Amino acid sequence: MNELFSIGELSKHQNISRQTLIFYDKIGLFCPAYVDPENGYRYYSATQLDYLDTICMMKKIGFSLEEIKSHMKGYTLDTSLAALRRQLAIIDRQIADLQLIKSRVEHRCAQLEQSAAIHADSTAVSVEQVKRQYLLLQEVAAPYTLEEVSIATKKCFVRSFREQLPIFFQSGAVVPLERIRAGRYTEASFAFLPIEKSSAKSVVKLPAGQCTVTYHTGDYLSIGRAYERILEYCRSHRLSVVSDAYEFAINDYLSTGNEAEYITKILFYVEQRR
């Protein structure tokens, strides 16, 4: 049986595990040329090596085992070219998806790198000209506790993944102004995810405009101090608040397990009183 390779020899020559070769045999993708009826040992012919190379190459560039099995039943130059063209289109889509994910991760890294500076001056209030933003909204159910906010946020993530929406890896919440003035600082009406411009029905546009901005550091239940600070700033600087509050999580459970490191950016749209 010198003209045949044992499964161990083939495994070594092709750098493929015995378990993989056994599995390929079981699914009918790559079967041995001969099986010893007495001990069940598998043996492969030299002519099968090129066939296995083709399988390994197709698997490497992303074909599924079922696609490879179907292709190898009677492949020709024409069918191989067509298969590779289809796979090239898939690879292009994957590259685009990875580029999008890369840009999101870079954006998140930049936020986390800036968090140290925010910690050092977290009690400041400023007036900023914000750019247009898009948010994927999810309504928070009554009684608007942190648990309902968390559930709404998770629903946002599920929808964004299902609909393949271009989200940033960040979450936030909208708190109605009347609830804030009543001291109900944590009763958000909506959870949201910042997102690229999208035509999805649940995506809303925040216009460019003038906003007062401050940051809250620490656990979310103590966020009232930041709201009192920003509202006092608006009163003393003759600014009228003309929107609900938008909270953007800079640091949250997605980036730290220590609530003392949480940072929330709070902004209101404002107008100068005459």
Give structural notes.
- By secondary structure, the protein is α+β, with helices and mostly antiparallel strands.
- It has 2 domains: 4-75, Multidrug-efflux Transporter Regulator, Chain: A, Domain 2; 114-272, Alpha-Beta Barrel (Multidrug-efflux Transporter 1 Regulator Bmrr, Chain A), CATH 3.20.80.
- It contains 8 helices and 12 strands.
- It has helices at residues 7-14, 18-26, 48-60, 65-71, 77-120, 146-162, 177-181, 224-236, and strands at 4-6, 34-35, 42-45, 125-130, 133-139, 172-175, 190-195, 203-206, 209-217, 239-241, 245-251, 263-272.
- The strands form 2 sheets. Strands 4, 5, 6, 7, 8, 9, 10, 11 and 12 form a 9-stranded antiparallel β-sheet that branches. It has a 3-stranded antiparallel β-sheet with strand order 1-3-2.
- A hairpin with a 6-residue loop joins strand 2 (34-35) and strand 3 (42-45).
- The longest helix has 44 residues, at 77-120.
- The protein is elongated and about 95 Å long.
- 23% of the residues are buried.
- The mean pLDDT is 91.
In brief, what are we looking at here?
The chain is of the alpha+beta class. Helix content is 42%, strand content 24%.
The computed structural class is alpha+beta
Question: How many structural units, i.e. domains?
Answer: 2
Q: State the CATH superfamily name of the largest domain.
A: Regulatory factor, effector binding domain
The total strand number stands at 12
CATH topology of the largest domain: Multidrug-efflux Transporter 1 Regulator Bmrr, Chain A
The whole-angstrom Rg is: 29 Å
Molecular shape: elongated
Which architecture of the largest domain does the CATH hierarchy give at level 2? Alpha-Beta Barrel
Q: Helix amount, in percent?
A: 40-55%
Q: Determine and state the CATH class of the largest domain.
A: Alpha Beta
| Poorly predicted spans | none
**N-to-C terminal Cα separation, in Å?**
99 Å
Question: Number of helix segments?
Answer: 8
Taking all residues together, what is the mean pLDDT?
A: 91
- Summarize the main sheet: 9 strands, antiparallel
Helix-strand topology string: EHHEEHHHEEHEHEEEHEEE
* Beta-strand residue fraction: 15-25%
